[in-house]
Design the sequence.
């Protein structure tokens, strides 16, 4: 009883519980909602326009939901829209983009991961100089190298081909990916590497059995960066390929900027949504690992 009386006058310690609707929270969530609306509103307009018929679009109210939903613009964008003299829609460009994306992604990530692993754990004489030169490549404007690459691809016999564009994307993805992998592998405890060396493991055994299983987050980051960059690329696609091998983004430009015939806004919006679908799906499926990999591979080193 005496103890209860003595403790009755003692105030509880620790931080006060935060109010749910404090000024800070209202400002924070209000800002987030406004930013979200800023980015989601164009997406909403594109989506509702792509499922409207042209008579309804001509009424002028772009924000109103469709009175009658139709997927005919999506079908036309995929298989019937004209991109120059060809009227097979985006389907041909989609498969061209797939043929460009997969080998470019696999080659650039595979080579950059080995580069990052070697530069972080198997340093050789002049490795820092080599790394510095490699990273400088990430800051050279692409526009300054367009013509020299045209000459190089011409001499190799790859100009206008999918293989030539794969080579370009692989090389240009190397600097930033090497930086990410090098910083990620440098953040792994060095004791693991030394223990493997003591056990007699060599370069490739350590890479495949120790480093790769621990590097899933940074591989996801690399995949998302490469998929987004390669799939959305227009500049390299329009310069280093020809109409038969144009990627999807070049065909989208030809559909949207066509000056012949009736301007079909619903088909244009559907074509735009179809073109951006692949990187969007990949990002949503692996968003959490992307954040983890960026935190581990971009700020440590």
Sequence:
């Amino acid at each position: 009883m005496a103890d209860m009386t003595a403790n009755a006058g003692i105030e509880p310690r620790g931080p006060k519980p935060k109010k749910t609707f404090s000024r800070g929270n209202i400002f924070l969530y209000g800002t987030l909602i406004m930013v979200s609306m800023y980015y989601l509103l164009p997406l909403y307009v594109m989506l509702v326009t792509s499922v409207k018929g042209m008579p309804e679009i001509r009424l002028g109210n772009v924000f109103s939901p469709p009175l009658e939903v139709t997927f005919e613009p999506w079908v036309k964008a995929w298989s019937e829209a004209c991109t120059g003299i060809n009227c097979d829609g985006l389907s041909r460009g989609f498969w061209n983009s797939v043929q460009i994306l997969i080998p470019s992604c696999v080659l650039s990530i595979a080579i950059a991961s080995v580069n990052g692993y070697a530069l972080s754990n198997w340093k050789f004489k002049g490795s820092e100089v080599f790394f510095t030169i490699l990273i400088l490549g990430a800051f050279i404007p692409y526009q300054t190298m367009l013509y020299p690459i045209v000459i190089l691809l011409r001499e190799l016999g790859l100009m206008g081909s999918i293989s030539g564009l794969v080579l370009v994307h692989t090389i240009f993805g190397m600097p930033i990916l090497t930086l990410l992998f090098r910083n990620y592998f440098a953040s792994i405890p060095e004791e693991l590497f030394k223990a493997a060396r003591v056990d007699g493991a060599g370069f490739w055994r350590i890479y495949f059995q120790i480093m790769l299983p621990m590097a899933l987050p940074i591989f996801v980051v690399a995949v998302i960066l490469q998929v987004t960059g390669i799939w959305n690329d227009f500049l390299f696609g329009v310069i280093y390929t020809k109409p038969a091998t144009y990627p999807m983004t070049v065909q989208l430009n030809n559909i949207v900027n066509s000056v012949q015939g009736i301007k079909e806004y619903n088909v244009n919006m559907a074509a735009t949504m179809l073109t951006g679908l692949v990187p969007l799906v990949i990002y949503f499926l692996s968003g959490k690992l992307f954040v983890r990999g960026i935190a581990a591979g971009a700020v440590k080193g």
Q: What stands out?
A: Residues 91-121 form the longest helix (31 residues). The chain has a mean pLDDT of 85.
